């Protein structure tokens, strides 16, 4: 049989196979859920300055991001249990309600502590929605269409990356920052009828039975994110490294407790198993997500201070990150199955190359080289991300499909949170808050990227193991050996 870009192992992977009457309603619903989470997280960057001018709490502004992330990751970690107890549709509707309530609390907040409560609720709802998108793609779409679907959802993320700050900035400029959150509360409520009418109930849903939510493990996971977030906000030669170590130890403790749990597991059993594709893929994703956060956190500041760009110009350079990621995902979504391992390895290598190039060119003031490095760094991630998702979910046992699907956004967001905190640790350790001169800024710009090269290198090694033919053959043999005999 002659293979084309539209077929793989006998399956049609063309855009026409995805954009049809069967899948479009589900895609639209998932796109709205993704939009709410992605654009709202971007919205905060341009509304919080106006918020603190009105209600105070400038010293707590970093917590508006940290608490959102903690709530988001905790919700994503528990989503498989919620689905088992309530079903997918009911869980998504409840997540939309919690998200909308959070938006209302922020929109009506009289002070910063109340606003932070709203941000926690937004994180819980938004994190639940993004995890449900990953679970839905496994429930409602065949595995061979996942890269195409991820490419489409990446385009939604691109739109959110651009529109979120613009929407927030427009409302804030008009002196109505609260209206931005009222608008998103209304959009969250719109998701409820969309889920009810457009997502059909699946008779094949795995019903694992009612299981209690593991509160202790959720608190450990949230604490690990908060500890590392605090460590990156302020630098102290003793306290900062101690907080990082405590945060990492708490995260490891969460994974170990979950792995030993006899019931209500939140993660698949193979999440920390380096002899399995899932363990290698998850760790590779975590390390690479940590490695790419420095530019998003400190790139605009460096471009403004060192390159003399305006905030708007710096924002457009940062926007190239999302454009490169989404464009690469769309461009490579239709490659044949046989090319996926090579594409994943190339993508990981490009992430590593982009970090090295950024460390070399950003301190030297070479703007076009910086733009090229941004494209290489994020384009490399975009070209492989859909295939990483596809292969991790495909490697999961049937009973662990929901846990594995929800683990992907947990890993991604945990990596982004840790990367943001660690980049803050690097920058603050080099006294970025002390009015650094040009030479000090160049040193900071170098280490913000060179410091993450070792993590990206280990991530690449894990990616090579993830797509290793020997590992895949061993797992195939294991599945054959445990298959029950035919009656």
Please tell me about this protein's structure.
With 487 residues, the chain is an all-alpha fold. It has three domains: 21-210, Up-down Bundle (Growth Hormone, Chain: A); 214-263; 268-480, MFS general substrate transporter like domains (Growth Hormone, Chain: A, Up-down Bundle). 76% of the residues lie in helices and 1% in strands. The protein has a two-stranded antiparallel sheet with strand order 1-2. A hairpin with a 2-residue loop joins strand 1 (7-8) and strand 2. Helix 8 (215-233) runs antiparallel to helix 9 (239-260). The longest helix has 32 residues, at 24-55. It is globular. The two termini are 34 Å apart.
